[in-house]
Structure formats: structure tokens, C-alpha cells
Amino acid sequence: MKLYDTALVSFARSRIGGWLFINVFNRVDRVLMGWTNARIHTGIGSKFQKTGVLLRCTGARSGLVREVPLLATPVPEGYVLVASKAGAAEHPAWYRNLKANPECSLAVGGQILDFVAQEAEGATRERLWNLAVENYAGYDDYQKRTQRLIPVMLLVSRNTNSA
After folding, report:
1. Each residue of 119-135: pLDDT tens digit?
2. CB neighbours (10 Å) of residue 46?
3. Pairing of strands 65-75, 52-58
4. Domain extent listing, the chain
5. Domain spanning 3-157: CATH superfamily
6. For a disulfide at 87, which of 35, 92, 142, 159, Cβ 3.0-4.6 Å?
């Protein structure tokens, strides 16, 4: 990883970096990624240019379409999303939205892909968590900041039967 990438990842893992990515950079990404179907986003280094996605889900209470820039981990089954909210005490709104309305889509690399979200549990959660941490080690830091168990969501293609 380049020095620039290492510095950005370290910054993103810090408390202030996590806050900035959630509260500032996500607002910019929502626009950039919406215009380009996630071809362009602020990202946090070259490694993350391939895993930045724009989640489109339905609001649990409002019923309106919500767009949320996130880091995703591609896996053979689909994509993994980690509901870390940089280690905040509460779950992110997108997690509650997916629990209430699991049908969603991702804009990734210029494509729109349709999925059904399911919360991973037990051994599956552990495996997917480890893959996500391998993709972005900051998740371990975020877990240490909060007393809640950070949820792991698996997005499976709507055209694929899940086990």
C-alpha cells in the first residue's frame, strides 16, 4: 500500500477521521456516487476505489428511497456491509432500513445491482467479519469503541437463492 493510502486509512480509523467520513465525506459521496453510479467517490485510498458502493434502500419509517455511501467487501455470495458507524453507540439508520426492507440495490463501479439483505449470525458472521476486517482493519478499532456487537449484513443477489 502506498504511503498516501496508509496515512488515509490510519486517519479514517481515528475517532475524528471516522466522524468526518460519516458526517462530511458521505455527503459529498452521496452526490458523486449518485451521479456516476459509484464510478467516482472520495474513497480512502486506491485499495478502496474498488469497494466503495452506494447503497439504495427503503426507509424503515418513511418508505422513501435512501442512498448511503459505504465500504463493501465483495464475497462469492455477494457483498458484505458492516454496520459500524465508526464505533458509535447506536446502529446506523441504513441497518434499520435493511432490517425492515431487505430488498435493496448497490451502485458499484458504474453498475446497479439488486440484492436482498440478511443479517449474518454465528459462524457465518464470524467468517464475513474476518473478510471485512481484512478489507478494512478499522472495523476492529470501531468494535473496540462500542459495547454493541456490530452487525454484519450479507447482500445476496435477488436472482440467487440464499442458503
Report:
1. 999 999 999 999 999 99
2. 12
3. antiparallel
4. 3-157
5. Electron Transport, Fmn-binding Protein; Chain A (2.30.110.10)
6. 142
Chain Cα centroid distance, residue 136: 11
Higher pLDDT pick, 51 / 41: 51
Cell 456487537 locates to 149
Q: What are the cell numbers at 118?
A: 440478511
- Grid cell locating 77: 455470495
- Asked whether residue 150 carries a pLDDT value surpassing 90, the answer given is yes
The pLDDT confidence band at residue 103, using thresholds 50, 70 and 90, is very high
Task: Decide if 6 contacts 46 (C-beta within 8 A).
Answer: no
Nearest CA to 45 out of 79, 85, 68, 13 is that of: 13
The owner of cell 456516487 is: 33
Write the burial class of residue 29 (CB in 10 Å: 0-12 exposed, 13-18 middle, 19+ buried): buried
Closest CA to 69 of 49, 54, 83: 54
